[in-house]
Structures are given as structure tokens and as C-alpha cells.
Design goal:
mainly alpha; Four Helix Bundle (Hemerythrin (Met), subunit A); 274 residues
């Protein structure tokens, strides 16, 4: 193999190692990016839907309690107006709840293992809405304080159950996003270490290949140069060893043939002189 092919093969190995490192880097970056996309497209929207559900339920709770309180304190046109305002707020809260639940229904399909949490939230929140409607009808019908009190107690129970279910789902999603963040951080840290290690290995391989190539080229040339100096001083018995099959090895063989020819020429000249 000639010098050019030797150098090209070694540089090809270095280039191949570089391509391998680049491929691993691109793959690692892609995996990290996909992990972030999953968090952005799945977990974060899920948390947002739950937060919207919680806000809608709190709006419903606040307006229902406010309407019950107003109906007990005063009577008259102003009271009716205030109650109508709370009814509007309750309806707005129910619409927001329905929109949030619709989005939550879409995202929950990505997490089948959380279906039970969804079912609990849906059941309790619907009971809460129904309880609110009963209270508003009771206010409109002017029921007694004892009947209204009983309805309010049931309402409090549904309130507690609904918020507890939503909070449980939020805690679960928080754990989920923390686990995913830890996974991404772990993947990022490992990728950094592997890429750093691969770069160090690549650097060492490049240095070793460069050193070996330099030695393999310079050593026989240096020996050949010393041999030529010996010939220049009149020593035609000097001989070099062909250490390789490349151009330098061929040059060494040519040098040896030259010294043999010079010795033969010297002998012939010496004989003709005498």
C-alpha cells in the first residue's frame, strides 16, 4: 500500500469516528427535543385544563354561595337584580367548566392510566353543578331556611369532593412533569458525557494516527538520508532496509541497487586502471 492510501485510510477512520459522534449528537438532541415536545404538547396542556376546571368550579361555588347569602339577608328589587347577576356568573362558570372538561377529555386519551381521575372529577363536578342548580331553584321558590341549609350542606360536600379530585389530578400531573423533566435532564447529562468522552477519544485517535503516520514516514527517510551521507563519504557497503511496501520502501530498494551498481562500477574501474 502506498503512502497516499495509508494516509487516506487513517483519515477515513478519523472521519468515520467524527461522523459517528455527529450522528450520536444529532440523535441525542432529537430525543431531548422530543421529550420537551411531549411535555409541551401533553402534560402542560393537561395541567392548564385542570386549572381551568378548578377556576370554573370556584366561580360556580362563589356565585352560588353569594346568591344564597343575598337571598337570606334582604328582599326586594335590588336583591333580585343581585341574584340575577350571580346567576349569570354561574352560567358563565358552567360554560367555562364545559370547555375545560372538553379539552381535558381530549388530553386524557393520551394518558389511559389516569382515566379513573377523570371519571371522578367529571362525576363530582356534575353533582356540584346539579347541587348549585337546586339551590338556585330553592332561592327562586323561596324555600325555608332549614331546606336551604340542607341543600347548602350537600353543596359543601360536593364542593369538597370536586376540588379534592381536581387537586389530586393536578398533583399527579405535577409529578408527571417532574419525572419527565428529570428524564430529560438525565438524558441531557448522559449525552454531554458521552459526546465529551467521544470527542476526547477522537482527539486521542487523531493524535496517535498523526504521530504514527509521521514516524512511519520520517523514520525510513531519516535512515535513507543517513545512508546517503555515508555513501557521500565513500562507504559503498552501506545498505538500507525496506521497512514497508510503499514509495519509501521502493526508494530504499533503489538505493541499495544503486550502491551495488556503484561498487561494481568501482571494481570495473579499478581493474581497467591496472
Amino acid at each position: 500500500m502506498n503512502i497516499r492510501d495509508k494516509l487516506l485510510s487513517r483519515y477515513f477512520l478519523i472521519a468515520l469516528l467524527t461522523v459517528g459522534i455527529s450522528y450520536f449528537s444529532i440523535t441525542s438532541i432529537h430525543n431531548i427535543g422530543m421529550s420537551y415536545v411531549e411535555i409541551a404538547d401533553e402534560t402542560i396542556p393537561m395541567i392548564a385544563s385542570l386549572e381551568n376546571l378548578r377556576f370554573a368550579c370556584l366561580r360556580l361555588l362563589s356565585s352560588t354561595k353569594e346568591a344564597a347569602l343575598i337571598s337570606r339577608l334582604t328582599k326586594g328589587t335590588e336583591t333580585d337584580t343581585a341574584i340575577d347577576k350571580e346567576i349569570d356568573l354561574i352560567e358563565t362558570g358552567i360554560k367555562k367548566y364545559e370547555n375545560a372538561l372538553k379539552k381535558y377529555t381530549i388530553y386524557i386519551k393520551l394518558f389511559p392510566n389516569e382515566q379513573s381521575l377523570f371519571d371522578t372529577i367529571k362525576k363530582n363536578s356534575q353533582l356540584l353543578i346539579a347541587s348549585s342548580a337546586k339551590i338556585m331553584r330553592a332561592i327562586a321558590n323561596g324555600v325555608s331556611d332549614s331546606e336551604l341549609y340542607e341543600l347548602k350542606e350537600n353543596f359543601k360536600k360536593y364542593e369538597k369532593d370536586t376540588l379534592k379530585a381536581i387537586d389530586a389530578a393536578l398533583i399527579n400531573e405535577t409529578h408527571e412533569i417532574n419525572e419527565r423533566k428529570e428524564s430529560v435532564t438525565y438524558l441531557l447529562h448522559n449525552s454531554e458525557l458521552i459526546i465529551m468522552f467521544a470527542c476526547i477519544i477522537s482527539f486521542i485517535v487523531a493524535i496517535v494516527f498523526g504521530f504514527v503516520s509521521a514516524v512511519n514516514i520520517s523514520r525510513p527517510i531519516r535512515k535513507l538520508n543517513l545512508a546517503m551521507e555515508e555513501v557521500g563519504r565513500g562507504d559503498l557497503t552501506v545498505k538500507t532496509e525496506a521497512e514497508s511496501n510503499d514509495e519509501i520502501g521502493s526508494l530504499s530498494l533503489t538505493f541499495n541497487k544503486m550502491t551495488v551498481d556503484l561498487r561494481e562500477y568501482e571494481k570495473t574501474t579499478h581493474k581497467s586502471t591496472y
